[in-house]
Amino acid sequence: MSPHLRDTWSTVDKSLSSSQRIRFNALISASLESADALTPADFALDVCQAVAVSRNLHSTADPGSYVHQLPIRAWWFSDGLYIVRTHPKFKYLLGAQIEQVGSYSPEKAAIRVAPFISGVDAVAHVRSAWFLSSPEVLHRIGATPSSDHVTLKLRLRDGTQKALRLGIEETQDPAEPLFEPMSPGDSKQPGRWDRVLDGVVDIPLTYWPAKNLSWRWIGSQSNILYIRSTSIWGENDRYGMLTELFNLVTNEVVSRKPKYVVVDLRFNTGGDFFNTVMFSEALPKLIPPDGRIFVLVGPNTISAALVTAALLKGYGRDKVALVGDVLSDNTSFWSESTGPLELPNSKIQVTTATKHLDWANGCSNLDLCSWGNVAFGQPSVSLKPEIRIVPKFSDYANGRDPVLEEVLSIAQ
């Protein structure tokens, strides 16, 4: 491994503690010593492992094309790991539960790959599904003797068990964002893989195609305002979402005066939280005293989306309830990336985090902290969901959203 990661990246990124830096340097040294024997995939995974030492989500390495995938994509549900997307050739595997990956159970394999994934346990668990569909990764953790194929033990949707040897995918699915396995996406997209939800007539709102901001009135009397965001950016410019949210508040919240508002951030990959500061402060003040705001969250509520949840909770307090699963990060983390750093020889992209944020206790040191956190952070904020619900695979496959269903049962 080039010492560039040690000598350049680690001097810019601030997420490593003193003890973590010792571990980081030891991993770099060990990789340098064995550099001549490393495969390209092992080199990329060494980079991932070193960068992930801080467990900071915003300090991450992308192994890119050095790590290949099987012709399936899986997702974790409360009752296990299931195949939710496949190459058309393997459509019959849709909905199969993965009971064994090589010689490991999925749960053991997820624990073994966690050191290569940046972030807290919750996000490492979710993202492990991607790593567990890579023969090179499975070979690295000792689950399989081969780095180009793996044997899976599956329970198909009809209940039958099947052992199947799969090799590296022949053609890549054009839709690769993190939560795309869950969404049907564009059914007419050339080269598109098959999805579990392809046969579902009424797709739950949270799995609709990605959109920075959308809203509609829902509930038995269409009196609950449902707002969904999958990215905290404007459609055409960085801060365009600020204007969109201003119009939403003016035309929908102020005009129609909802008692209940649902803000769905479960599959929001982040962006720039300055877009949502005004909205987060204003919304709790604009609903009735006996009204509620339900913020739907989970391990894919990332970065600026997590900050938006924290701002809503901080400004709204008891009016705001977080519903869903554990979020993608702690309330205290490092962010404010200066942009990805590219390792000179491998061209692997490594992100950097340079400013500290603390959304539970506030952050007051401008030299250390993001100025947005200093200016807008609220004290004593908890991001632990008041109502924790993790869908089962059967919920998803049948087009049900138990998280939103629970909110509607409370609001109605």
Report on the structure:
- Helices cover 30% and strands 18% of the residues.
- The protein has 412 residues and is of the alpha/beta class.
- The strands form 5 sheets. A 6-stranded mixed beta sheet has the order 8-9-10-11-12-17, with helices on both faces. A 3-stranded antiparallel beta sheet has the order 1-15-14. It has a 3-stranded antiparallel beta sheet with strand order 2-3-7.
- The radius of gyration is 22 Å and the shape is globular.
- The mean pLDDT is 92.
Short description:
30% of the residues lie in helices and 18% in strands. The chain starts with a helix and ends with a helix.
Features:
412 residues; alpha/beta; six-stranded mixed sheet; three-stranded antiparallel sheet; 12 helices
How are the secondary structure elements laid out?
Blueprint (H helix, E strand, L loop, with lengths): L3 H9 L5 H16 L6 H12 L9 E2 L9 E6 L2 E7 L10 E5 L4 H8 L7 H11 L3 H6 L8 E7 L5 E7 L26 E2 L18 E5 L5 E5 L11 H17 L3 E5 L12 H10 L5 E6 L6 H13 L3 E5 L7 E4 L5 E2 L6 E2 L4 E4 L12 H6 L10 E2 L4 H5 L4 H10 L1
Parallel strand pairs: 9-10, 10-11, 11-12, 12-17
Antiparallel strand pairs: 1-15, 2-3, 3-7, 4-5, 5-6, 8-9, 13-16, 14-15
Helix pairs in contact: 2-3, 4-5, 7-8, 8-9
